[in-house]
Amino acid sequence: MKNKFAWIMTPDIEWEEKKELITTGLESRIDHVLDLKDINNIKKLGNIEVISEDENADISIVGINGEGDGTLQLDNDADLNDSNDLKVAKSYKDKGKKVVAYVEINSKKHEELARVLGKVVDYLILVGKDWTIIPLENIIADLQSVEVKLIAAVNSPEEARLAIETLEVGTDGIIFKPKSFKQIKEIAKIIEDASTEKYELKEATVTDIKPVGSGDRVCIDTTSMLIPGEGMLIGSYSKAMFLVHSESLESEYVASRPFRVNAGPVQAYVMVPGNKTKYLSELETGDEVLAVDKDGNSRTVIVGRSKIEKRPLILLEADFDGIKIKSLLQNAETIRLVNDKNEAISVSDIQVGDKLKVFIDQGARHFGMSIEENIIEK
């Protein structure tokens, strides 16, 4: 599943009112703003990407002010290869700039223009009177093999949900003119929910558990509070991973650290957004990883720090329908996995025959990405 996103298009209001809307958006993780006149003021509010015709814009826009083809009535005989927007977009690209095209879908010819521009620009904003009709489906289907990110202009949370779910794939993002602080937060929540990945967890039977000596172990401290039942998918095999529980539970030996997952040795994999994996040794402050709960629901959390220390390790092996799963974990009472009863169980209490929650990926992986290839991991 792709991560979805939202952009704000600023309404024509006084700067002080506009500033409050942009700040609320930034607090809701909306950090792209389309604005044609206040770029310098916006830049002072935080790390915000500004979409504008200004030469200092982070993303240059074509077609929005009525001087291009995207907002005009096109003649049915018009040669779209001579489109003014296309020429301007190409000139921006030649200068190494990111470009977004703004196209109002007023006719079949505008659909064709969107397809032509979509093969050149980085982003394509599509503006329609009613997204319950066919044009959005057509454009998504025609451009799904192209690198461009499609953005639907919407007026409400309901339209936002419809746009990102169209044809199951949906647009990559939405853009809207905020009417209230509440609307910003509602749309931000829809985008967050749409970006959530669901992992089908299986129950694997433990076949062996034994100490194996010491190694460099990684603790992942996040900037989020993890809750009981939540952890991360960790494993020595990229296509077969255990759900390692967070340290959100109290212990008679140490206080809870609900921001932490004591993950495993440096060579192990952890699941990150986009159904990708990373080696634990690669994680750094600011990276994103997935927190996954006992039901397979996930959310993105940010790494606050990655702490590597030499610790005694334990080898855990399990089997699911003939698929062998192995992982190394720190040999300590506070390290827990999740069993078939949705309970957090310490590695010191796990026995052969116990059933644990695991994720099995049917594809192999290349540089962390799932692919259709046969790779043997032992």
Automatic annotation (TrEMBL):
One of its GO terms (biological process) is amino acid biosynthetic process. Its EC number is 1.4.1.24. Keywords: Amino-acid biosynthesis, Aromatic amino acid biosynthesis, NAD, Oxidoreductase. Residues 3-190 form the 3-dehydroquinate synthase N-terminal domain. It holds the Pfam family DHQS_2nd. The keyword Amino-acid biosynthesis applies. Residues 204-378 form the 3-dehydroquinate synthase C-terminal domain. The keyword Secreted does not apply. GO terms for molecular function: 3-dehydroquinate synthase activity; dehydroquinate synthase activity; NAD binding. It comes from the Archaea. Catalyzes the oxidative deamination and cyclization of 2-amino-3,7-dideoxy-D-threo-hept-6-ulosonic acid (ADH) to yield 3-dehydroquinate (DHQ), which is fed into the canonical shikimic pathway of aromatic amino acid biosynthesis. Belongs to the archaeal-type DHQ synthase family. This is 3-dehydroquinate synthase. The lineage of its organism: Archaea, Methanobacteriati, Methanobacteriota, Methanomada group, Methanobacteria.
